[in-house]
Structure formats: C-alpha cells, structure tokens
Write a structure and sequence with these properties.
about 85% helix, about 110 residues, mainly alpha, elongated
Length: about 110
C-alpha cells in the first residue's frame, strides 16, 4: 500500500514543471533497457570492425601467398615440396618408433 502511494506521488510530481525539468536533468528511466542493448550492440560492432582491421592484412597475405604458390609454381616444384613433406613425415615416424623402443626397454608398453 505504501509503495503505491509513493508511486502515485512520484507520477504526480513528474507532471509539475519542476518535476519535468528534474526528469530532463536526471534522465527518465523509460527506455533505459533498450538503450543498454543499443550500447552493447555498438560495442560488439566496434569490436568486429577492430578485429577485421587488425587481421585483414594477415589474412590477405596468407591467401595471397597460397594463391601465388598455386598459380605460379610448376608441377615439378609442387612435387618437390610434396616430397620434402613426405621425407619430414618419415623422419618423424622413425623418431616416434625410436622413442617407442626406448620406452619399451624401460618397461613401458608403447607398442600401440
């Protein structure tokens, strides 16, 4: 009951000249939630724009170098790169097998 009385007094006080002026100075609470959502949306949009600006150069360089490799390299050069990759993979497999053997000698079961 007391809260209703305070609400009625507040509403009637807002209708006065002084009350309207005070509401303009202090800001009215109506629409505050919508304004918060707008501020959040603007912050998210600003973050997206900043990220695009920061990473666009790196992305452009990465895609440009990939495009350059795919369009300008000869088939023999691409095969050479593939062979180097396969050699690296074979070395890694040998090192892995050596590590497994060493682990098995120490008493572990690393056969898988």
């Amino acid at each position: 009951m007391e809260k209703k009385m305070q609400t009625k007094r507040f509403k009637s006080a807002k209708k006065t000249v002084f009350g309207r002026m005070l509401c303009r100075i202090l800001g009215d609470e109506r629409g505050a939630v919508a304004m918060e959502y707008i501020v959040i949306a603007l912050l998210v949009a600003a973050a997206v724009v900043a990220l695009v600006m920061v990473f666009s150069g790196n992305l452009r360089n990465m895609l440009g170098s990939t495009n350059e490799v795919m369009t300008k390299k000869k088939v023999s050069e691409i095969k050479e790169v593939g062979e180097k990759y396969n050699e690296q993979q074979d070395k890694l497999k040998e090192e892995n097998d050596t590590a497994k053997e060493a682990g098995n000698k120490l008493g572990g079961e690393f056969a898988n």
